[in-house]
Amino acid sequence: MSATKDRTSRNRAASRPFTLWREVMTAYAAPALMAGIAGVVTGQQDLTVAACTSIAGTSAVVAFLVGTWLRHGGQPRRWTTTTPLVALTAALVITAAGAAALLGWFTAQWLPAHTPLPAAPWLERLRIDLPVSAALATTIVTLRWRSTTTAPPT
Predict the structure, then answer these.
(1) pLDDT tens column, 47-85
(2) Containing H/E element for 30?
């Protein structure tokens, strides 16, 4: 009975379509809850605030951008379905995390230098929060998307 139930669960999960809005909502809610709980438990107020802003916000934006790019208007690019999963995931993670790291570094340096906003600890958090959130969201969305697509015949 256990084997039948396990097989049915896998088939149901694999047949569930990739729905972008659901992936974006999950990408926001999961890190917001986990980092928020960690911030409350450890008494780190800055982590609690960052959980719902820079961490979850970055995850949701990256999930939307990567998911939209992967879906490519309902017709995935051929190379995204034929490239080995590890290589595709690694390439997308490096790209997204690299872009997020540059954005975090630029924001932490540029804002205090060019605006009346003083340098603050939350600005420094962006250097870590953005690339880590981007890497996790990209990995999850890519794996989830790929599990719902089939490679076209060669």
Answers:
(1) 999 999 999 999 999 999 999 999 887 788 889 999 999
(2) helix 20-42
Average pLDDT, the chain: 87
Exposed, middle or buried by CB within 10 Å (0-12, 13-18, 19+), for 48? Answer: middle
CB 133 within 8 A of CB 55: yes
pLDDT-derived band at 117, boundaries 50, 70, 90? confident
Q: What angle do CA 110, 105, 33 make, to 5 degrees?
A: 115
pLDDT score at 119: 76
Provide the 8-state DSSP code for 119: P
What CA–CA distance (Å, rounded) separates 28 from 22?
10
What Cα–Cα distance (Å) separates residue 33 from each residue in 9, 101, 117, 130? 26, 23, 29, 17
Q: What is the 3-state secondary structure (H, E, C) of 74-103?
A: HCCCHHHHHCCHHHHHHHHHHHHHHHHHHH
Threshold 0.90, pTM exceeds:
no
Do 145 and 67 form a contact (C-beta atoms < 8 A)? yes
Task: Give, as one character, the DSSP assignment of residue 43.
Answer: T
